[in-house]
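ugh ok fine here u go
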Amino acid sequence: MFDIMGMMGKVKEAQAKIKEAQSKMVYLTETGEAGAGLVKVTVNGDRKVVKIDFDESLLSPKDKEMLSDLIVAATNIAMTEMEIKIKAEMKSATEGMMPNIPGMDLGSMFG
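structure:
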């Protein structure tokens, strides 16, 4: 027979673990590089850009458009890597908490 009270307890436990994991996300960082490392953008787990580094050779006015393109590319790479890291953290936080229901991925529900 299905134990609804046991399931509700698991849901509350999962919610607490998810909340704890989410509070730690801001401390995660990921850096994306573009232009063979000429531009580096670091983002945090709160999906905020926290640092941009670029080679001084890109400060020439003629390279303005290329610098902009490289910043966008590096930012997108960093954000993609952060999404992967967040999903892994959430999956780890909720692992074993809920029954294995095909198609139900708690890590992606809260990332």
